[in-house]
């Protein structure tokens, strides 16, 4: 097929007519601390001042036995000494089905304004109901109701069906505090690998990979 027949072919930057180059920074081994959670927190703190919604992250899972992957954008809500925490429906959603058959997952952050990327790979574990309730309590009431009302990823006849579900939940909890649903809560990705990526000119990016070695982390520079 000729390039003129392609719907998209070699997208270019607006100013040069060629692919954009990454020129905003560099990354050296001496810039990194030994603990990847501390390193992530440093980068994230910087991103909060420069990036729109830096907590946005692509969560990828894969079902077994097919191995078919699926990805979606979610919000990182917590980072603790064990890993990265997101919240969702763990009953009807596609990610729930994937995690039930395959506890491995990955995260990918892209911070365009800083030309930085972070990848995380590891195993998953559910947070306790008590932990999930702590976060659920700080959500807007409408979001709390939505968690109860939406059997995520299930087929809807129309929008009216969803709105009727919302009204039923509003009536059920009118004048009451809303408890976290049993099917909803936190998922922690416990990393076995974390990679920090800084864009560089000519696609010769700086990449450093942290991998677990017993109770410590091994840090290696990767070829771009």
Q: Which tags fit this structure?
A:
single chain, 224 residues, alpha+beta, 9-stranded antiparallel beta sheet, 9 strands, 32% strand, globular, EC 1.4.3.5, FMN, FMN binding, pyridoxamine phosphate oxidase activity, Pyridox_Oxase_CS
Could you outline the blueprint of secondary structure elements for this entry?
Layout: H1 36-48, E1 56-62, E2 69-75, E3 78-79, E4 84-89, H2 94-101, E5 104-111, E6 116-126, H3 129-136, H4 141-149, H5 159-172, E7 184-198, E8 206-213, E9 216-222
Antiparallel strand pairs: 1-2, 1-5, 3-4, 4-7, 5-6, 6-7, 7-8, 8-9
Helix pairs in contact: 4-5
Cofactor: FMN
Protein name: pyridoxal 5'-phosphate synthase
Domain Pyridoxamine 5'-phosphate oxidase N-terminal: 47-171
How would you characterize the overall build of this protein?
The protein has 224 residues and is of the alpha+beta class. Helices cover 23% and strands 32% of the residues. The chain has 5 helices and 9 strands, in the order H-E-E-E-E-H-E-E-H-H-H-E-E-E. It has helices at residues 36-48, 94-101, 129-136, 141-149, 159-172, and strands at 56-62, 69-75, 78-79, 84-89, 104-111, 116-126, 184-198, 206-213, 216-222. Strands 1, 2, 3, 4, 5, 6, 7, 8 and 9 form a 9-stranded antiparallel sheet that branches. A hairpin with a 4-residue loop joins strand 3 and strand 4 (84-89). Helix 4 (141-149) crosses helix 5 (159-172). The longest helix is centred in the last third of the chain and has 14 residues, at 159-172. It is globular and about 60 Å long. It starts with 35 loop residues before the first helix and ends with a strand.
